[in-house]
């Protein structure tokens, strides 16, 4: 009798979910943090983005280092500018059960480099990033 080793076929990309491709959430900060402090957190963590939370512990968005740099370098900048002042509306977000294909379309359409993955309670469980 000869044993045959079977290798499982990769899941169909159309049915794979964000959970299969997301990274750990990474650095998480409160929305009352100043831009300068947020930039320092990014540099010390060697991260290109931060997940931002409100006072209720819900993820309100993701902010990238280049966004913070633009704000800091603007003529309207003061050291009192908080993340909540520049974050804008909540989102976009995705669910862990969203298909990778659907999340990728959302990211490409919105020209997003990363997308927070949040659970039903508004807590970030990961980040989905486009690979270039």
From TrEMBL:
<keyword id="KW-0129">CBS domain</keyword>
<feature type="domain" description="CBS">
    <location>
        <begin position="22"/>
        <end position="78"/>
    </location>
</feature>
<dbReference type="InterPro" id="IPR046342">
    <property type="entry name" value="CBS_dom_sf"/>
</dbReference>
<dbReference type="Pfam" id="PF00571">
    <property type="entry name" value="CBS"/>
</dbReference>
<dbReference type="InterPro" id="IPR051257">
    <property type="entry name" value="Diverse_CBS-Domain"/>
</dbReference>
<dbReference type="InterPro" id="IPR000644">
    <property type="entry name" value="CBS_dom"/>
</dbReference>
<protein>
    <submittedName>
        <fullName>CBS domain-containing protein</fullName>
    </submittedName>
</protein>
């Amino acid at each position: 009798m000869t044993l045959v080793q079977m290798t499982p076929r990769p899941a169909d990309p159309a049915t794979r979910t964000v959970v299969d491709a997301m990274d750990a959430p990474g650095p998480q900060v409160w929305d009352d943090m100043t831009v300068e402090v947020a930039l320092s957190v990014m540099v010390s963590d060697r991260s290109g983005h931060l997940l931002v939370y409100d006072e209720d512990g819900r993820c309100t968005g993701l902010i990238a280092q280049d966004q913070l740099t633009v704000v800091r370098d603007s003529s309207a900048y003061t050291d009192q500018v908080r993340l909540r002042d520049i974050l804008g509306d909540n989102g976009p977000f995705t669910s862990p059960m969203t298909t990778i294909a659907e999340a990728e379309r959302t990211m490409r359409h919105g020209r997003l480099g990363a997308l927070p993955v949040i659970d039903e309670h508004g807590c970030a469980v990961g980040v989905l990033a486009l690979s270039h």
